[in-house]
Amino acid sequence: MRPDRFQEADGLEQRRAAAIGALMTGIVHEANTPLQCLLNNLHFLRDCVGQLDPARSGPPAEWREEVETVLDESREALLRVVALVNAISDFMRAPAGSPGLVDLNLTVGAVLALTRNEWKYSARVDTALADGLPPVVAEPARLGMDCLDLVLAASRDAAASASVTGQAARILVATRAGAGGADLVVEVEPGGARTLTWPVAGA
Q1: Given strand 193-198, what is the order of strands in its sheet?
Q2: Is 189 inside any structural domain?
Q3: Residue-level pLDDT at 94
Q4: Closest CA to 26 of 98, 97, 119
Q5: What residues make up the domain containing 22?
Q6: Contact at 8 Å (CB) between 37 and 74?
Q7: Number of domains in the chain
Q8: Are 42 and 131 contained in the same domain?
Q9: What is the DSSP letter of 21?
Q10: C-beta of residue 130 within 8 angstroms of C-beta of residue 177
Q11: Is the residue at 64 inside a domain?
Q12: Contact 154/124 with Cβ under 8 angstroms?
């Protein structure tokens, strides 16, 4: 890698670290909610175990439905935390400095998970990620930052709209195969759309 490319990569790493730092309060909040749910459910299950009758071979039948619900809730809560941790890992580990083949849909999913606390109070986010989208040719870290910037800009637009109308805006995040490659379209309703395009592998 040329010295100027090293400098660019280093600058991109610093931008990425700063972006995650700015989002960290929201990320922690998003992790804390399901973790608190999991902790409450574990306390409930512990209480149930403490009330078991040693003379019986199993829990009372009336507990079954409630315990199953609690276990399902706990599994969902744990999966949310795992998804958030994976999103941070995917975003931060994307290499900087050299182009490669990147799964655009996976990157978009990670960005939406990382930014959820930025838009969830002012917008409803719908996704339309194209099936079978070929890998794009891009520098992975830069693509992640470009996607992040696009979603954060839409979040700010949605917040501005909601402050005027008093109603949540709608953000549509879509990927599609276009004539020039693969597109990421982020549209705010009411408002406008922004589009980024990358070449695809084999094009």
Answers
A1: 123-128, 169-178, 181-189, 193-198
A2: yes
A3: 83
A4: 119
A5: 3-93
A6: yes
A7: 2
A8: no
A9: H
A10: yes
A11: yes
A12: no
